[in-house]
Amino acid sequence: MGAGHDHHGSVANAAHRHRGRLWAAFALLAALMVVEAVAAFGTGSLALLSDAGHMFTDVLGIGMALAAITATRHGDRDPQRTFGLYRLEVLAALANAVLLSGVAIYVLIEAVRRFGDPPEVRTGPMLAVAVLGLLANLVAFALLREGAQESINLRGAYLEVLGDLLGSLGVIGAALLIAGTGWWWADPAVAVAIGLFILPRTWRLGRAAVRILVQAAPEHLQVTAVHDRLTAVPGVAEVHDLHVWTLTSGMEVASAHLTMVPGAEVGTVLAAARTALHEDFHIEHATLQIEPGAAPGACGQVEW
């Protein structure tokens, strides 16, 4: 006997709710990316080029988020995809982390090369474009901030925009320093700073995505605590074959076998177990199999 509690939850639909804001941020950053890329080659600024490359990953990341939203909606209509396509959100976040890491590493390598022979940089256009980029990133930051609290995919785009915002500040600082002092090394120095700022954040994002993909238990949740709580449910004699994992951001899933105390009422035990998972661990989707304690071999042994 078993019971499933199926609830995709408002958290998992965060990307859908913020779709309009994603499109606005996508269009704004795409336009600025082109401007920055052209200006970077025109001014010879590596810092501006790194900011343009970072903005490219912003645009690509938001584009993948929008694609994941569309795919998820269509996937929900396919009966063969019993969990829809929610994992596409996690895959998009992982791709964002990989791409952004690649850009950061390239900038670091190029910056080291330029320290030996820093080229002249046209600071006027560099400063103007950097200020424009800062304003665009402030708008995109505001558009994505709310959704970043609810979705790992939106969080990836949000982190990229946050990094780009700080990058624009760095480019502005480099332009002012070069214009005021003639210290050309400021350009590759800022590029290095941007790269070092990006890498640890993207690695954390990638680690979170991989953790979901390998179906590890959520970091904030102790499986032993879930086991003990279910064991404490009145009418439960034993808990085994317990699994807890994350489907996508904000959607924790659990399955377990509960051996009942003789004479316990199935409906009461199921209701109490679901309530415990919901109230104590915020697990909205739980599949629980009830096994009478007196029935030998009620649970088949699974080798994996």
Description:
The protein folds into 2 domains: 2-213, Up-down Bundle (Alpha-lytic protease prodomain-like), CATH 1.20.1510.10; 223-292, Alpha-Beta Plaits (2-Layer Sandwich), CATH 3.30.70. Helices cover 66% and strands 12% of the residues. The protein has 10 helices and 4 strands; from the N terminus they run E-H-H-H-H-H-H-H-H-H-E-E-H-E. The chain has a 4-stranded mixed β-sheet with strand order 1-4-3-2. The two termini are 22 Å apart. It is found in: Membrane. Its main location: membrane. The chain crosses the membrane at residues 22-49, 55-72, 84-109, 124-144, 156-178, 184-203. One of its GO terms (molecular function) is zinc ion transmembrane transporter activity.
List keywords for this structure.
single chain, 304 residues, alpha+beta, Alpha-lytic protease prodomain-like, Alpha-Beta Plaits, 2 domains, four-stranded mixed sheet, 66% helix, 12% strand
